[in-house]
Amino acid sequence: MTLIREMSSGSEFVGFYLLREFEVKQTNGTPAKDYFDIVLCDASGQLSAKYWDVSPAEKSLFAPMGLVKVQGVVQLYREKLQIKVNRIRLAVEQDGVAIADFIKAAPIAAADLVHTIQRTASEIADAELRGLVDYCLAKVGDKLSHYPAAKTHHHNYYSGLAYHTVRMLEIGDFICRQRPFLNADLLRAGILLHDIAKTEELTASLGIVSEYSLQGRLIGHIALASTWVTEAALKLGIPADSPKVVALQHLILSHHNLGEWGSPVQPQTAEAIALHYIDSLDAKLQMAEDALGALPEGEAWTPMIRGLENKAIYRTVF
Amino acid sequence: MTLIREMSSGSEFVGFYLLREFEVKQTNGTPAKDYFDIVLCDASGQLSAKYWDVSPAEKSLFAPMGLVKVQGVVQLYREKLQIKVNRIRLAVEQDGVAIADFIKAAPIAAADLVHTIQRTASEIADAELRGLVDYCLAKVGDKLSHYPAAKTHHHNYYSGLAYHTVRMLEIGDFICRQRPFLNADLLRAGILLHDIAKTEELTASLGIVSEYSLQGRLIGHIALASTWVTEAALKLGIPADSPKVVALQHLILSHHNLGEWGSPVQPQTAEAIALHYIDSLDAKLQMAEDALGALPEGEAWTPMIRGLENKAIYRTVF
Amino acid sequence: MTLIREMSSGSEFVGFYLLREFEVKQTNGTPAKDYFDIVLCDASGQLSAKYWDVSPAEKSLFAPMGLVKVQGVVQLYREKLQIKVNRIRLAVEQDGVAIADFIKAAPIAAADLVHTIQRTASEIADAELRGLVDYCLAKVGDKLSHYPAAKTHHHNYYSGLAYHTVRMLEIGDFICRQRPFLNADLLRAGILLHDIAKTEELTASLGIVSEYSLQGRLIGHIALASTWVTEAALKLGIPADSPKVVALQHLILSHHNLGEWGSPVQPQTAEAIALHYIDSLDAKLQMAEDALGALPEGEAWTPMIRGLENKAIYRTVF
Amino acid sequence: MTLIREMSSGSEFVGFYLLREFEVKQTNGTPAKDYFDIVLCDASGQLSAKYWDVSPAEKSLFAPMGLVKVQGVVQLYREKLQIKVNRIRLAVEQDGVAIADFIKAAPIAAADLVHTIQRTASEIADAELRGLVDYCLAKVGDKLSHYPAAKTHHHNYYSGLAYHTVRMLEIGDFICRQRPFLNADLLRAGILLHDIAKTEELTASLGIVSEYSLQGRLIGHIALASTWVTEAALKLGIPADSPKVVALQHLILSHHNLGEWGSPVQPQTAEAIALHYIDSLDAKLQMAEDALGALPEGEAWTPMIRGLENKAIYRTVF
Amino acid sequence: MTLIREMSSGSEFVGFYLLREFEVKQTNGTPAKDYFDIVLCDASGQLSAKYWDVSPAEKSLFAPMGLVKVQGVVQLYREKLQIKVNRIRLAVEQDGVAIADFIKAAPIAAADLVHTIQRTASEIADAELRGLVDYCLAKVGDKLSHYPAAKTHHHNYYSGLAYHTVRMLEIGDFICRQRPFLNADLLRAGILLHDIAKTEELTASLGIVSEYSLQGRLIGHIALASTWVTEAALKLGIPADSPKVVALQHLILSHHNLGEWGSPVQPQTAEAIALHYIDSLDAKLQMAEDALGALPEGEAWTPMIRGLENKAIYRTVF
Amino acid sequence: MTLIREMSSGSEFVGFYLLREFEVKQTNGTPAKDYFDIVLCDASGQLSAKYWDVSPAEKSLFAPMGLVKVQGVVQLYREKLQIKVNRIRLAVEQDGVAIADFIKAAPIAAADLVHTIQRTASEIADAELRGLVDYCLAKVGDKLSHYPAAKTHHHNYYSGLAYHTVRMLEIGDFICRQRPFLNADLLRAGILLHDIAKTEELTASLGIVSEYSLQGRLIGHIALASTWVTEAALKLGIPADSPKVVALQHLILSHHNLGEWGSPVQPQTAEAIALHYIDSLDAKLQMAEDALGALPEGEAWTPMIRGLENKAIYRTVF
């Protein structure tokens, strides 16, 4: 089976893919004819595709996010690769294919990531901080295991949010050992909750974001997570103006560092400073790692990456 | 009695003033001698003052924010007027002076402003929005009547916050009549709550801000008010993600318009746009009106005003 | 007759429309064939259209801004609706259609707007200010009644400029009642003239801007209006450096507030501050109102709007 | 006689100086005593000075911008040199000193500079452009010969404006010879008028700016000069919208290049681009030359210079 | 023979052109057919072209940067002119055409430019500066004669770099005569070397840049040229920290003036200030001159030019 | 002995201190009298001090950076603590005090830091990278052990540069273990050399920077270190354009991330991204740690810190 990342102009193939986007459109000709304007993906990447010879019966068979078997050929169209589908059908049980194999996911299993997150939360020594964190994790429920961390920016895949969180926890623990004056409980709580409201800001399925929610657009994950901490404090009977609650909200609110990047206040505790730079370090390196990982063998430069000051990244090889 | 605003170099005076700031310091000479480094104010303005011949008994008599009777002379020191105090004593009951007469205050009585605010809140037709507003107003309690709206920026005096709110309500009502498509309930609720958490952000007495609180510095009045709405919704049993709650929080969160001005999200409803510009219009005009009002007769230009792009304002006279 | 705003993919229609843009082009095929690349509009919106089967005789019949009768079908082309014209002919007198019915216009009749503007000008108490305003209004002549206020930004339709001016006058009168220290004559004069040179900056017909004029590009409406005041002062025998002339020019020159927004000086009188924020309030709310008004039933978000920090606007409904 | 630039801590001197600033103040002691707070200058620089033992008779003898004979001593006060005046008297005719010898001035005589300017204006081939320039030069009158080009920024001395203009004309002529496609008449007219309204923006005497005028603050020299061209066109019967008038106004309006630097429009003709960079080149180099010229022998770095990105300049010597 | 700049829709032509870009692509149809997607240019401009009826034999005949004879027709495609090639063949010796006639080049012969550059270098009086300059010029070798100064920004043609350098030398000499305090040797050396590493930053042929080199992207011509001066100093035995070496590196490093424009340090010598503004003056005027030169007869406005604040330039004609 | 950090207004003390700054000045009185304007420091902090009763003999005894014994009293002067010295003498051998005990230094011994740095350099597997690093470390010599990393910003004390480097190496090693795709050799080399030229940019003694050098001001440590790599490559016979040399220079040149922060190129390799954020993380946290460490017991907020967005830092305690 041909991986999407390995397709090149002219290659013919048969294989299973995920129907990431699906729309029935009509040609401009007279009479107008139906065709499928679709996006196929697997764990290695995605390509847009057209299926021209649609029969009326086929129109109602497909829907986005389903698995399909496709026979097609790859063509160049306006400088980009595009698939011309010759045959397409839904995958059935006997095909023995599973959606999980066709989506991009973090390199560590979701269950392991969630386990690490919950263990870390349980190890927060301060009972009130631990209570606040547990409340918010519980509120998120199952989304913790599979949500991406962003629509396109970074960690935009299955379990991306949990993976980003776990990696940051590792760095945070290292920095706390290096600098014992830091409040490790607070930094851990901040890392665990800094992006937690992305589960509400984004509408996602299988690690793929389809849109921003109303709360996501009108409130944003930063202010939203701050209200969750208030809610947790109320439910747990912790005064909303206690230094612990305030310090934790401060970490969340300031973690984008500057107003123009979305933070209504700027970091004013050592833990807030640590959180911001650990977040940047992990997110930026992941963007570079993912872009280099997707680079075809033999190429030296990735495409331009918005989150990296719109720069292309060079693969260091020597 | 000489108003502070009318004092000029060389004038001698006797009168009652508010001891806005008070500190005992020591001269550099040998032996060092105690002196009072103080700020005197009345409703017309304020001046720093020195009292050099402090007796040991006097040192413990005074405290900030008390009324005092002063005999002194005005001098020029480093280009600025300064009072040399010759005699000073605490005001006593028989003097018949009241603190309220010595502080700068909004031109409308506090009780009237609070009445207008509460009446407006009670006229919000939507029961849930009305409940959210009432909850927050009740939470603020007495501070609503006397808090200033800022430390130095604008409406920085007794009842400044209430005055700013009432004026904005007037403009808001006019705009809603002009443009009926606007949701008047929502805009009113947004005006009533947009600066409500300044009562927690600032520590103030008699309309004078002494400092920012911990919550003020680490969370800020914008994100803080947003958590109050969440709290209100929880207490009232309104779902935190209902469009009403979200739209009201959006008004609060976006009312500074841009990230660099402190808003984590930008206005995305017509009411949020209205709120921001009504707020700016009222605050900026008040800065100009106050600065021109404090301008000595015959002068054409105010000092530079930070909140007005650091420009001086010219008195238009013809 | 189908309104353009109500057209959807696949719908067939017959009706009258305004030929907003018209060009004869040639296909790429061999031999190349003529076709019409046009834009059709009515008061509800506009769509691009193609007419493929052009006969030689038809090529010279049409011109931009004429009314036509069209029989066609709506198609999707590159994600956007486009009209495929089957038949097209010029409207004739017997059709009983009038251009005025096919263009977007302010919701108040042009004559009423002009009347309000002229009455307000005549009520300016100060004879010299009144003279300066009258001179500039007279200079503009008929354009006052129908010019738009911008190419795309805001009030970009028939009588848009007059409508914007009248609405601002209403707000200005309200603010002057609220704050009597403001010079109402000066503020009115400023509102009347602040955008007056848009009639020279833009080349417009029927409320639709086709291009910027040479003066518009090399001088701009702000500096241009300032020279008109000088011209008026010279003609009326008012010294160009009299405080009235200077204050009025200042209002015009500073009304965009910041240098990066096109104002060579920043507001330095209370009236200039009022003018800027009244202008912003009215223009921004109009953008939101127009965008929401054009939103199809059932949709919640407008497209992104450049003049509103490039944000989409959410329709507040509850 | 000791030049001010050569004074160092501890040096005693007798000499004639210009009384650049003069104010009678009072000491803080009891009883307060009068003293003179003054600034003395000569062509080499300036220093602040105090005269403590003022007799009542002396108080009314002096005024700013008069020549005085001073006997004093130089002291260090708060890291800066300051003169302690022991004796001071007005200069009298018999002293044989002339104000012109005590002020900083351009290195070329005012009359020569004015002659060059007028000759250049007369050589503009295009009669209309020449007329516009002549009108504005005539309007300025005598100020052309002695006005500075700025308060502190650059060319802030006697004939500074004329000197800056003449130097720019030289560079402009060179560039026009190098690039014949440029319209030399237009560029010359632009150079002659680009800063001409500084004569109205600033209030200056002997090359020293005391303040900005009302027009200077509310309109600014850029928009002001643009209105002068309109005035000239009206008087000369040239249509205000003729390309020549518009192009000349464009040069003036755009010569600061960016909105944040004060230009309401950006350069859009080759001549406007040339004008901006010739202006920058001459102004910036003059700042560097003046700062290096004022640098004491043996020092390598000037103070920080606001107009040069707030950088100090290093004297290149090898 | 039809110049590319003179082609208009519908015109048929036969002539010689340079094959600036060449790629074999395939149509979307079934079966897919080969076609040439090419760019043809001559000294007057360039146009994209398609050749549809490619025979298998033709596919291997062509390569970028070769001369070809073309018979074709000009068509409009998506608002832009495009050539439909009917016949194409390689130019042969007998055709008597030379590549040099088909590329855009500086208006002065390369040999003359190089001669001026080398003569100027040899006239630098200071032996060490002269040595540093000579070393760098020698390092560049032949590229000095033909390299462009940029990919698209300015002087983007054959000998563009040398032409830019020579013009700047002329202005520099003029300014040094006008201001004798400037170190003419240093300024000349700075002009000669400021863009010298563009020969390594860019990969160019016949004045056309194909891409940025690895050094160009990771180091940039500014820091790169600075290391060349270090290399030269080491080879010539001049201490790397001698004021001459440092001052010359400073000119190179600071010539973009601001950090956001690529300079790690800002100008801090008079010569560095001169260099920056001379560079800007020459580059900006050249952009305007080239854009106006390419403007078809009768048009008044060039396209928008990125390097000129993204403004279009108006042709001043009167 | 009283630590400077523990001094408060009114406390009298005797002890040894380092004479960090020393100047003889004169009072303004008549006759002027000599006094010492000095700064005393120990490892805990510094205070300015005055010694008024200077005898002629004493004037020549002292010099900056010597150890002195002082008897004095602490006073408040203009809101700040200041020492009034009653007696002062040079420390002598018998006093048994060592300069090293009076200066602020990294918490790890210089020898240990240097050892770690050299061991890390020797463990770079790639021989060429190792050679480049070794060359630069050798060039710096002894300064490596004691130089600060900045004048005031961060790590501004004895061994500050080495301490910063070692801490970054620790983080770098952790990140390379976390993300094996990173080139650990290259990142280590980048960390070792990124600030290496601060030893030339700054003039420092005992960890205290007195000024910036000529190279520091005109070239800066970023471009300077890049030339050192070129020099190393030349000496070691490694081509200056080899990918290793280029990649290492890229790390140095881009480590400030943005042009406005001093980097002429932006990070374009994963290792360059890692370097920038590791550098920020370590520097910012050190600023916070040092400021909190210097905060008197019982205080919650540090002064504003320029390098931390000019924010004060709150001590998290719960």
Automatic annotation (TrEMBL), chains A, B, C, D, E, F:
The terms under GO molecular function for this entry are: hydrolase activity
Q: Which InterPro entries match?
A: HD/PDEase_dom, HD_domain, YhaM_exoribonuc/phosphodiest
Q: Which UniProt keywords apply?
A: Hydrolase
Q: Which residues form the HD/PDEase domain?
A: 157-293
Q: Please give the Gene3D superfamilies that the UniProt record associates with this protein.
A: Hypothetical protein af1432
One Pfam family from the UniProt entry?
Answer: HD
GO BP annotations, alphabetical order: rRNA 3'-end processing
SUPFAM superfamilies the UniProt entry points to: HD-domain/PDEase-like
User: Know the name of this protein?
Assistant: HD domain-containing protein
What is the taxonomic lineage of the source species? Bacteria, Bacillati, Bacillota, Bacilli, Bacillales
